[in-house]
Hints:
- By secondary structure, this protein is α+β, with helices and mostly antiparallel strands.
- It has two domains: 2-127, no CATH class; 133-220, CATH 2.40.50.140.
- 45% of the residues lie in helices and 25% in strands.
- The protein is built from six helices and six strands.
- The chain has a five-stranded mixed beta barrel with strand order 1-2-3-5-4.
- Helix 1 (2-21) packs antiparallel against helix 4, helix 3 (60-72) packs across helix 4 and helix 4 runs antiparallel to helix 5 (107-124).
- 23% of the residues are buried.
- Residues 126-134 have low confidence and may be disordered.
Amino acid sequence: MAGMTSFSSTRLMLRGLLLGLRPFDGLYGQDAFAYYNYALELRTSLLENGTIPAFFWPIGFPLHLVFAFSVLGVSPQAAQWVNVIAGALVAPLTFALTREVLIERDGPHARSAALVAGLSVAVGGGAEKTTIDKPKKLLTVAGVIGNVRYSNPHIFFDITAKNGTTWTVETEGILVARSKGLTEQVLKDGATATLSGWVSREKSAELGLKSITIGGRSISMRGTAR
């Protein structure tokens, strides 16, 4: 029990340090907005005794957000605290799961292996980073589409401009993109398009798609940076 508490404390301190060095400045990424907006919808439905709305992913995390909203108020900061605390619990859970799996196979070494696994997550897991877009750097690119790939739940593709520069573009989720008209028949290798998107903060040749004109039609993806 003491070991699990130590893992949680270590990871919580590391995540707190990272937040101190790089303060939370808003939601980025379609996943973040999808979870947050669904949590708001779920909260409203529960308060009104309505039915639980459908969602693409399991609703465990949004339920935790709803609880946080009731305690801390409705805000992205409340959601961030849920993320920080949940992340801190990953290390002790890794320790407990590893020990449980190995204790029957290799009893004498199960605890040592569990300690190594838990410590690795507690220390190394705090170094995670996410590629997010620069909210104020919006770029327009015209060129040829290529390397279209569906990496659930997102769509990625490349666009090569006339000057030879190739950008990797990320759309919204597959189902959302299709519902807006960006289908396999429209978004395909060899098609020409003009698009606008936010430049990634950490990958200079990556864009988060804002809108695209392709196949004779204009399609709007999102109104804010990821």
